[in-house]
Amino acid sequence: MSLVQKLFSLEGKTAIVTGANTGLGQGISVALAAAGAHVFGVARRSCAETLEKVNAVGGTFTEVIADLSDMSAIDKIIAEVSSKTERIDILVNNAGIIKREDAINVTVEDWDQVINLNQKMVFFLSQAVAKRWIEDQKGGKIINICSMLSYQGGIRVPSYTTSKSGIIGLTRALANEWAKYNINVNGIAPGYMATNNTTQLRNDASRSEDILSRIPAARWGTPEDMYGAAIFLASDASAYMNGFTVAVDGGWLAR
User: Fold this and answer.
1) Taken in order 189, 194, 200, 201, is the CA torsion positive or negative?
2) Residue 181 is among the residues annotated as catalytic for this protein
3) What interhelical angle do 121-136 and 158-178 show, nearest 10?
4) Which of 151, 160, 192, 227 is catalytic?
5) What topology is assigned to 3-7+10-254 in CATH?
6) Are 38 and 15 in contact (CB under 8 A)?
7) What predicted TM-score, i.e. pTM, was given to this entire model?
8) Is the Cα torsion angle 229, 231, 237, 238 positive or negative in sign?
């Protein structure tokens, strides 16, 4: 194996990917598995499609059914993964929800659902995994999935924008505290991707045209566009990267 292959290889590693049953989580699961990791995909629903895609690239994937809106899911996830592997090496906090509504009409219930999953769960799941890494002194990798709305305000998504703005800050904060333990905490900010979260936007001809007109790449992104950044941040190739968020956005932020 060459130096470059070694740097980007995930052979022998174990990764947890939340929201792995569809969209970006599915794509990241396939990428990490293709690079050699045993991926444990966490979702509320079946990850059968993800398993099929991972099998197609010769990877290893194990489904973990858990409801991430419930904080007790953390102990369940850690216990289930730990029963099947020696240690966790990589955590990808991808699961999230978006609720589109005029700010004036947002309810407390809807606000809390978004913040609890997109922000609170990310922190406490990261904390649970980091405690193990600090104890065994072997370090690990955390990748937080941010958003273009980590940088911008957006329209009709105040709770989502708040949660994703918070995640980019949390990524920096955790890196500041945990880098000394050989824990790398970084983020990926996807641009406008063709996933379940953007179905409403893509079905709105006017909004879709507005969005595409600003993307230099002139297309919606795909889960496959996340492969490179995910493997990079999960591998030894990014060993000296801490607290940074990589935009995979077709040039949106450069516009």
Assistant:
1) positive
2) no
3) 10
4) 160
5) Rossmann fold (3.40.50)
6) yes
7) 0.96
8) positive
